[in-house]
């Protein structure tokens, strides 16, 4: 198990390096000179040269990458070109908002999706199953920007229940929670459908296995068979799905934060890309990739924890 | 609690997209406390459907007619809730394949604790103590340690012992073993048969053993029912069936048992023909198309149940009582 964890972490570091190499290559390949874009057409050549040096763009690409990682290892992710503040500070300011949004969306999607999937299985073939099925496919099909805009219109403009923009007053939990509802809904809604379908499909398969018949032959109540005997196995594909899906949750956060004007990593990246603020882009991407990779590793370890057969494969 | 079991005129149909399959037709069997009943027949003869019906585990597309009276209660007309309460309390099933019978992600101990859920009077540690005692009784050493194992960490024979222990833990009045040795190798099979023989000495409920293996039946059972294509064609004491079989199918089945040949043969004997289509079973005798001595009424008239002795019956036009 320990060897397995170490291997997975090593692979994660490799992925991180690869992503950063691709990012630097992309910056190098994008047409247009970042300094001219940033400073506008009337900038003097001296000013441009200064900015290029400050961003380190006069160095060869491979050297830039090596420098970046050397600094990153000491906790220095570079400096914002405009405000000259450390990128790590900017990220740390924005990250909690995004993480709260991502975790809330995911938790909501799991807390609603998993029971819906189970209910579909317990009541298979009935109207409840059919309704859950239609609704699940329906919410998967609705793009989250549509949910975002319509919920804005309904809850913020017409009903005036929830604030339209921002992340709520600092220190006021109620106001922060209210500001969280709509962005989380926009992200979570499709995932509720995905998770419900996934749990239903894998659980239907598990329910046909002989050990479920054994549990039945001992007269265990159906809810216990579903929630303990079947769910422990059926949840495993869902964990993988959610871990992989976290990438798409983080990328939906980018525009959901834009729609609801929520401060967060998404907004930080969008603004940085628009102003060609490369150090900020690189620093943020590194942090986001690191989070994504850690969650994937955590999911793999959780699966090994849940399934003793997987655990034994990696036992040394 | 022990009581007699009797199935009367029991028929089971499965409603499928390709029509209704008459898996079991007009089956009469009975069993009394202390008896070990064998049910034998080739694949597809309805033995599994019969025990599934007795264990109240038929799938939703099954339609049941007739009655199964156990201890004065008709299981066929029982509501779903009361039926569930009987399972794992009065009636226990040891299922066919010990490799897949247990949940792979829960420890054996955890599952065996759950299986005692009818025993509301015991707490978790008492249930665990019962498990340890029962595992020792079925021949598993270091029971405490084994309870912490996951199913895939145990051998097939050990898992089958666990499955038998699980069934016995519920103190059932009716213990059904569906092909208890089919998935095991010969050595393990001998050990499990030995275990079942030991257990029957101190057990006073009904044991039903299903097998296509004639040797298993001969070693374990008092009485045996021979099934063919969803019907009981002959039934009686083990000695009568094995040495004085009357139904042509039973004879043919015995003639095909490799264990009965003293010499090596080039080809094993088989029963020519195939099972009839159970969506539209033939009008007369179900075995007529493969029978070696078809008489005049066999193709059109359902054969009567001929009583040959106190408990020896055969369903055939060719025998006389």
Automatic annotation (TrEMBL), chain A:
PROSITE patterns (alphabetical): ABC_TM1 (PS50928)
Entry keyword annotation includes Transmembrane helix: yes
Residues annotated as domain ABC transmembrane type-1: 95-303
Ranges that cross the membrane: 9-30, 99-122, 134-157, 177-196, 233-260, 280-303
Keyword Zinc-finger: no
Any Pfam family: BPD_transp_1_N
Chief place where the protein resides: membrane
Gene3D superfamilies reported for this sequence: MetI-like
Bilayer topology annotation: Multi-pass membrane protein
GO terms for biological process, alphabetical: transmembrane transport
Localization annotation: Cell membrane
Keyword terms of this UniProt record: Cell membrane, Membrane, Transmembrane, Transmembrane helix, Transport
Record-given protein name: Peptide ABC transporter permease
Organism of origin: Pseudaminobacter soli
TrEMBL record, chain B:
UniProt xrefs under CDD domains: ABC_NikE_OppD_transporters
SMART domains cross-referenced by the UniProt entry: AAA
InterPro entries: AAA+_ATPase, ABC_Ni/Peptide_Import, ABC_transporter-like_ATP-bd, ABC_transporter-like_CS, Oligopep_ABC_C, P-loop_NTPase
Bilayer topology term: Peripheral membrane protein
GO cellular component terms listed in the entry, alphabetical order: plasma membrane
Major localisation: membrane
Record domain ABC transporter: where: 5-254
Compartments in which it is found: Cell inner membrane
Domain of life, per lineage: Bacteria
Keyword terms of this UniProt record: ATP-binding, Cell membrane, Membrane, Nucleotide-binding, Transport
GO function term, MF aspect, one: ATP hydrolysis activity
Family in the record: Belongs to the ABC transporter superfamily.
NCBIfam families reported for this sequence: oligo_HPY
Full protein name: Peptide ABC transporter ATP-binding protein
Organism lineage: Bacteria, Pseudomonadati, Pseudomonadota, Alphaproteobacteria, Hyphomicrobiales
């Amino acid at each position: 198990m320990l060897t397995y964890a170490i291997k997975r972490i090593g692979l994660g570091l490799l992925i991180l390096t690869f992503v950063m190499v691709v990012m630097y290559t992309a910056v190098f390949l994008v047409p247009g000179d970042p300094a001219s874009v940033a400073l506008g057409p009337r900038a003097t050549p001296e000013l441009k040269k200064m900015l290029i040096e400050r961003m380190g763009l006069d160095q060869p690409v491979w050297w830039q990458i090596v420098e970046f990682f050397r600094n990153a290892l000491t906790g220095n992710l570079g400096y914002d070109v405009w405000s000259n503040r450390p990128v790590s500070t900017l990220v740390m300011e924005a990250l909690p908002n995004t993480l709260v949004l991502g975790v809330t969306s995911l938790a909501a999607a799991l807390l609603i999706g998993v029971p819906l999937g189970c209910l579909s299985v317990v009541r298979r073939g009935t109207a409840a199953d059919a309704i859950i099925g239609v609704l699940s496919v329906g919410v998967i099909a609705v793009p989250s920007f549509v949910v975002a805009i319509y919920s804005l219109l309904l809850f913020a403009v017409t009903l005036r229940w929830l604030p339209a923009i921002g992340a709520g007053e600092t220190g006021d939990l109620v106001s922060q929670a209210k500001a969280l509802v709509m962005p989380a809904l926009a992200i979570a809604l499709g995932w509720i459908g995905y998770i419900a379908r996934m749990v239903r499909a894998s659980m239907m398969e598990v329910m046909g296995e002989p050990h479920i018949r054994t549990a039945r032959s001992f007269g265990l109540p159906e809810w216990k068979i579903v929630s303990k005997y079947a769910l422990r196995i059926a949840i495993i594909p869902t964990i993988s799905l959610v871990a992989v899906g976290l990438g798409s949750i983080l990328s939906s956060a980018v525009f959901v934060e834009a729609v609801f004007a929520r401060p967060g990593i998404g907004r930080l990246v969008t603004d940085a890309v628009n102003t060609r603020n490369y150090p900020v882009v690189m620093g943020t991407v590194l942090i986001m990739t690191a989070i994504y990779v850690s969650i994937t590793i955590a999911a793999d370890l959780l699966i090994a924890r849940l399934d003793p057969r997987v655990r034994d494969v990696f036992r040394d | 609690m022990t009581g007699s079991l009797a199935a009367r005129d029991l028929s089971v149909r499965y409603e499928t997209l390709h029509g209704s399959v008459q898996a079991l037709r007009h089956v009469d069997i009975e069993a009394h406390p202390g008896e070990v009943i064998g049910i034998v027949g080739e694949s597809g003869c309805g033995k599994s459907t019969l025990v599934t019906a007795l264990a109240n585990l038929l799938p939703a597309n099954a339609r049941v007619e007739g009655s199964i009276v156990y201890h004065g209660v008709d299981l066929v007309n029982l509501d779903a809730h009361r039926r569930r309460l009987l399972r794992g309390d009065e009636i226990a099933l040891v299922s066919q394949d010990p490799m897949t019978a247990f949940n792979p992600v829960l420890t054996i101990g955890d599952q065996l604790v759950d299986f005692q859920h009818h025993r509301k009077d015991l707490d978790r540690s008492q249930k665990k103590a019962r498990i340890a005692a029962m595992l020792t009784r079925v021949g598993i050493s270091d029971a405490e340690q084994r309870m912490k194992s996951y199913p895939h960490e145990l051998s097939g024979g050990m898992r089958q012992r666990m499955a038998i222990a699980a069934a016995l833990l519920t103190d059932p009045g009716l213990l059904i073993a569906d092909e208890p040795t089919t998935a095991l190798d010969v050595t393990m099979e001998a050990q499990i048969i030995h275990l079942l023989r030991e257990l029957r000495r101190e057990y006073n409920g009904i044991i039903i053993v299903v097998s296509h293996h004639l040797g298993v039946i001969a070693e374990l059972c008092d009485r045996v029912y021979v099934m063919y294509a969803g019907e009981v064609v002959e039934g009686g004491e083990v000695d009568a069936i094995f040495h004085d079989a009357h139904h042509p199918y039973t004879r043919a089945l015995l003639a095909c048992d490799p264990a009965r040949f003293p010499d090596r043969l080039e080809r094993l004997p088989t029963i020519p023909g195939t099972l009839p289509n159970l969506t539209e079973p033939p009008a007369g005798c179900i075995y007529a198309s493969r029978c070696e001595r078809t008489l005049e009424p066999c193709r059109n008239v359902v054969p009567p149940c001929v009583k040959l002795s106190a408990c020896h019956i055969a369903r055939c036009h060719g025998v006389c009582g």
